[in-house]
From TrEMBL:
<dbReference type="InterPro" id="IPR050678">
    <property type="entry name" value="DNA_Partitioning_ATPase"/>
</dbReference>
<dbReference type="InterPro" id="IPR027417">
    <property type="entry name" value="P-loop_NTPase"/>
</dbReference>
<feature type="domain" description="AAA">
    <location>
        <begin position="3"/>
        <end position="177"/>
    </location>
</feature>
<dbReference type="Pfam" id="PF13614">
    <property type="entry name" value="AAA_31"/>
</dbReference>
<dbReference type="InterPro" id="IPR025669">
    <property type="entry name" value="AAA_dom"/>
</dbReference>
<protein>
    <recommendedName>
        <fullName>AAA domain-containing protein</fullName>
    </recommendedName>
</protein>
Length: 261
């Protein structure tokens, strides 16, 4: 069965998509079969692999509505073993349309039933909100990775995120656990960053990845070339830091996260 991991934080611009795309690629390069699910109507994971959402006929939206399935929408990417379930423009309307549907929190989970034995990993890139799309992702996941930008205001909203995860666990998905928090855009010269780090340690004492993602211009450039960092600049410090993170995740394959926040 696939290890299903949501990359979640309701704040925009904290590195969710960069983390999801980088991890999916690196896990595939390490020999895993990976499905990256673009759950954000902005379609940044889709464009990050060089696809244009506007050209897509079908995507995640149609899957959530039950009109098609993952097998029909999954696209090959330039990374062997990494496939992409693209977001299309219509996904923006999904959170409203799903409200009146049966099993509205479980649309993604139901759709996974048909592919979760095919992939080793399913990585979900969540939108910057705690709405129904994110709830679908959390209801369908076993684990959560939370990117937190190493900035002073980054901890705002973290309590609300933890509450949402707890609510989903209590009401929709008892198996959900936090795999870890990853610090992104870290600048060790910046005193503020270290303060933020200390505070996050207090929030999630044993749930912080050892790998920290530095602020790195190559990571910011890669999406505009339609490539994950490991293909854009394999030797860059951004690529190496995400490789370390992926190794930490691979190391927990035999014993996925059990600890609940
Ligand atoms: N470690 C990093 N260093 C520099 N720029 C980054 C880094 N991580 C992400 N970025 C850039 O910051 C912006 C927001 O990142 P993104 O992954 O899209 O965040 P989110 O998905 O949470 O909105 C993007 O332009 C991205 O290329
Ligand atoms: Mg994003």
């Amino acid at each position: 069965m696939a290890r299903i991991i949501s990359v979640v934080n309701q704040k925009g611009g904290v590195g969710k998509t960069t983390t999801a795309v980088s991890l999916a690629s690196i896990l595939a390069e390490a020999g895993r079969l990976v499905l990256l699910v673009d759950m954000d109507p902005q379609g940044n994971a889709t464009s990050g692999f060089g696809y244009n959402s506007r050209d897509m006929q079908k995507g995640l939206y149609e899957v959530l509505l039950g009109e098609t399935d993952f097998r029909s929408i999954a696209l090959d990417t330039i990374v062997r073993g990494c496939r992409l379930a693209p977001a299309t423009m219509s996904l923006a309307g999904a959170s409203v349309e799903l409200v009146n549907m049966e099993q509205r929190e479980f649309r993604l989970k139901m759709a996974f039933a048909e592919v979760d034995h095919v992939y080793d990993y399913i990585i979900i890139d969540c939108p910057p909100s705690l709405g129904l799309l994110t709830v679908n992702a959390l209801a369908a996941s076993r684990e959560v990775v939370i990117p937190v930008q190493a900035e002073y205001y980054a901890l705002e909203g973290l309590g609300q995120l933890v509450n949402t995860i707890n609510l989903v666990r209590e009401n929709l998905n008892p198996d959900l656990s936090v795999l870890g928090v990853v610090l992104t855009m870290y600048d060790k010269r910046n005193r503020l960053s270290r303060d933020v780090m200390d505070e996050i340690y207090q929030h999630f004492p044993d749930r912080i990845f050892r790998s920290v993602i530095p602020r790195a211009v190559r990571l910011a450039e890669a999406p505009s070339h339609g490539k994950p960092i490991t293909l854009y600049d394999a030797g860059s410090k951004g690529a190496r830091s995400y490789e370390k993170l992926a190794r930490e995740i691979i190391a927990t394959e035999s014993a996925p996260a059990q600890i609940k926040v």
